[in-house]
Structure formats: structure tokens, C-alpha cells
Specification:
Blueprint lengths: L1 H19 L4 H5 L3 E7 L1 H4 L59 H33 L3 E12 L2 H13 L5 H17 L4 E12 H16 L3 E7 L2 E4 L13 E11 L10 H13 L6 E9 L9 H7 L4 E2 L1
Length: 321
């Protein structure tokens, strides 16, 4: 009797599970294919150290030269002459004569010379301290992440794959070109923008690489990597079976960029114009300030597209543009 009740409860639980689970619920949680391309070559590139400012000491003060002065002449006496009233005994020391006022000009010149040296020393110390602050301060860096959910087209999906294959991912110049080329593709598909998100992190150069790696790792975990081109190495996952959904409409593109310096602010909430400004801000990167870049898109497999339920469940922070 007890075993029969347990079997009945198990059967009832299975029937309720079949009723409550909506069609396509498992597909909404399933990961789609995805691709990524980029590199971190800018972090390993030597950065020019700030130049020490040139210290121009103030000109040394011009000191007045001593002018000859006339003093009254005194009579000279022979070596063995003794004035009257002076005991006449021989002396082994020569006579000492004191000239009144003779050391006054010499002391003034010495004081002025010492004052000039002090002024020059203070000027040099200030310049060196300023240079030390410039060299020892942290270099400000920024890491930005832009996500755009665009209406799916086979042309956009194929263009992203072609851009990734042709990218030069081992130099700052190639990474800057990668961001520029991706921005061009997304601007051409601007009419299809539906959802987006933009955030910027700012900090030191040492911490920027860690923040970039954290965001890149998070992005890679959001899909199954069927294609990856990172720092010159390409990987393709064979045997992936496409998961085609009849109501799939979107492709999600993520751009990560780390630069030395700051990025222009973007108004919030994002909206369409803000997304365009964010994309143009990333496109202003150059080989001189690009540290790292990564472009990811999902789905990557031909024919796959994300549903709106996929976007809401997988990326809840997306804003409606």
C-alpha cells in the first residue's frame, strides 16, 4: 500500500512538470553558438615614460664688484724702529695693522652669493619633485563594454565572421582597426538596433588588464565558442549542431575595449543616440592608446538567431533602445 502511494505521487509530479513547463523554455536557457576575436597586445607594448620637465634655473644674481677705496697713508718705520716711550727690545713677530672697514664689502658679496645658490637649489628641487609626481602617479586607463542586440540578418552574421578572420590581433594597430571595422558594420545595421548596454570602468594600468580579462571571460561564458581568433591563434569547434528557432530575430554583438586615458561620457539611459555615441567613442581608439580589444557575437553558426526571451533571460541588463 505504501509503495503504491509513492508511485502515485511520482506520477503526479511528472504530470505537473509536463503541464507547467512551457514549450521552448529549455531552448531559452540553452546556449547558442558564438564567436570572438581580439587580443591584449597593447598591455605588453612598452609605454613611453613621462619626460622629466626641464628645469631652467633663474639667472645668478649679478653682484656689485668692490670699488677701490682710498685710505689715509700711515708712516712706515724701519723694522727695528720703536716709537718713543716703547721699550727697546727685539720682537720676533711683525707688527699687525688693522684697517677700519676693510671686511664690509667682502661679507656682503658672500651673503649675496650664498643667497643666489639657495634660490637656484630651491628651483631645482621643485622641478625634480614635480617630475617625481608625474613619474610615480598611476596611469589612468579605461575599459568599456558595449552590447548591441541587432535584428538578425545572414549578411551581418557573415560579415562579423569575415572581419574576425581578417583581423590582425597581435598589435595595437590591428586591435584598433578591429574596433573600427566592427563599428562600421554596426552603424550600417543601425536601423536594426533594439536593445543595448554600455558601461565604463576607470582605474590604474595594472588593474585595467584584470578588468578587461574579467569582462572577456564573462562574455565567453555566455555562449558555446564555435569560432575564436585570439592573438593570432584561430580555433574552430567542429561538429556543432545549429539550434534554429522559428521565432529567432536577434544577434547580440559585444565590444570590449581597454585604452590608456579616459573615454567620453555617454548619457543615461542609453537609448539609440547614446548607443551611437558609445560606438563612436570606441571607434576613436588609436594604436597609441589601445591596450586590448575583443569583439564577440552570438549566435555564430549559420541560421541561428536569438529570441527575445533569450535576450531577457540571458542578459537582463539590456535596455530598450
Amino acid at each position: 500500500m505504501r509503495l503504491t502511494r509513492i508511485r502515485a505521487l511520482l506520477l503526479l509530479w511528472a504530470m505537473l512538470a509536463c503541464v507547467l513547463v512551457e514549450p521552448g523554455w529549455d531552448s531559452a536557457l540553452a546556449q547558442r553558438s558564438g564567436g570572438g576575436v581580439g587580443g591584449r597586445g597593447g598591455f605588453s607594448t612598452p609605454r613611453p615614460s613621462p619626460s622629466i620637465p626641464r628645469v631652467n634655473p633663474s639667472p645668478s644674481p649679478s653682484l656689485p664688484l668692490p670699488t677701490p677705496r682710498s685710505y689715509p697713508s700711515y708712516p712706515t718705520y724701519p723694522r727695528d724702529y720703536y716709537p718713543p716711550g716703547t721699550p727697546g727690545y727685539p720682537s720676533t713677530r711683525p707688527p699687525i695693522y688693522v684697517t677700519p672697514g676693510a671686511g664690509y664689502n667682502i661679507d656682503l658679496i658672500a651673503l649675496l652669493f650664498i643667497g643666489g645658490i639657495v634660490l637656484v637649489s630651491i628651483s631645482m628641487l621643485r622641478g625634480l619633485q614635480q617630475a617625481g609626481r608625474n613619474n610615480g602617479g598611476e596611469v589612468e586607463s579605461s575599459v568599456a563594454r558595449l552590447r548591441l542586440a541587432v535584428l538578425y540578418t545572414p549578411e551581418l552574421q557573415a560579415s562579423l565572421r569575415q572581419t574576425a578572420q581578417a583581423a590582425e590581433t597581435e598589435s595595437p594597430r590591428g586591435l584598433a582597426d578591429l574596433i573600427d571595422n566592427t563599428a562600421v558594420l554596426l552603424l550600417r545595421a543601425q536601423d536594426g538596433w533594439r536593445f543595448g548596454m554600455y558601461e565604463v570602468w576607470t582605474g590604474s594600468l595594472e588593474k585595467a588588464e584584470g578588468q578587461f580579462d574579467a569582462w572577456m571571460t564573462e562574455t565567453r561564458s555566455e555562449f558555446i565558442e564555435t569560432y575564436r581568433h585570439f592573438e593570432g591563434k584561430e580555433e574552430v569547434q567542429p561538429g556543432y549542431q545549429s539550434k534554429v528557432e522559428p521565432d529567432g530575430r536577434y544577434i547580440l554583438v559585444t565590444l570590449l575595449l581597454a585604452v590608456s586615458g579616459s573615454l567620453p561620457p555617454i548619457p543615461s539611459p542609453l537609448r539609440r543616440e547614446g548607443a551611437r555615441q558609445a560606438l563612436m567613442a570606441l571607434a576613436t581608439s588609436s594604436p597609441t592608446n589601445t591596450l586590448a580589444a575583443y569583439v564577440a557575437w552570438t549566435p555564430e553558426a549559420e541560421g541561428e538567431a536569438l529570441t527575445e526571451q533569450d535576450l531577457l533571460l540571458g542578459w537582463p541588463r539590456l535596455e530598450l533602445l
